[in-house]
Amino acid sequence: MKFKNLIVVFAITLMFSSCADWIFRIDVPQGNFLDKKDVAKLRIQMTKEQVEFVLGKPVVEDSFDHDTWYYLYQMKRGMKKRGEDFRKELTIKFVDDKVAEITGDFELSEDFNTPLDQ
């Protein structure tokens, strides 16, 4: 009798575990989604207002260093078949309220080192 109950419990557990992919789980995006086209518009010597117009407000502004902006984007996938989780970062450093350096996961355009005024 106990062996029969054990088989029933095992069968029910196996059925529920096979249905795990049927449960819909949403993707959870967090932060600023940055498009490659928008990042390609950035140029050296752009003002903070120009950068904000192109990319939007940064997710994080350093409280102690107002000349560093952080753009972060993270996607937590609800289901593995929709892809892997990923994270993208972009850090912009300003000198005298103008872009001096950009680092992160995005490739800058070939024209980045050419200011807009020229």
From TrEMBL:
<feature type="signal peptide">
    <location>
        <begin position="1"/>
        <end position="20"/>
    </location>
</feature>
<keyword id="KW-0998">Cell outer membrane</keyword>
<keyword id="KW-0449">Lipoprotein</keyword>
<keyword id="KW-0472">Membrane</keyword>
<protein>
    <recommendedName>
        <fullName>Outer membrane protein assembly factor BamE</fullName>
    </recommendedName>
</protein>
<keyword id="KW-0732">Signal</keyword>
<keyword id="KW-0564">Palmitate</keyword>
<comment type="function">
    <text>Part of the outer membrane protein assembly complex, which is involved in assembly and insertion of beta-barrel proteins into the outer membrane.</text>
</comment>
<dbReference type="InterPro" id="IPR007450">
    <property type="entry name" value="BamE_dom"/>
</dbReference>
<dbReference type="Pfam" id="PF04355">
    <property type="entry name" value="BamE"/>
</dbReference>
<feature type="domain" description="Outer membrane protein assembly factor BamE">
    <location>
        <begin position="31"/>
        <end position="102"/>
    </location>
</feature>
<dbReference type="InterPro" id="IPR026592">
    <property type="entry name" value="BamE"/>
</dbReference>
<dbReference type="InterPro" id="IPR037873">
    <property type="entry name" value="BamE-like"/>
</dbReference>
<comment type="similarity">
    <text>Belongs to the BamE family.</text>
</comment>
<comment type="subunit">
    <text>Part of the Bam complex.</text>
</comment>
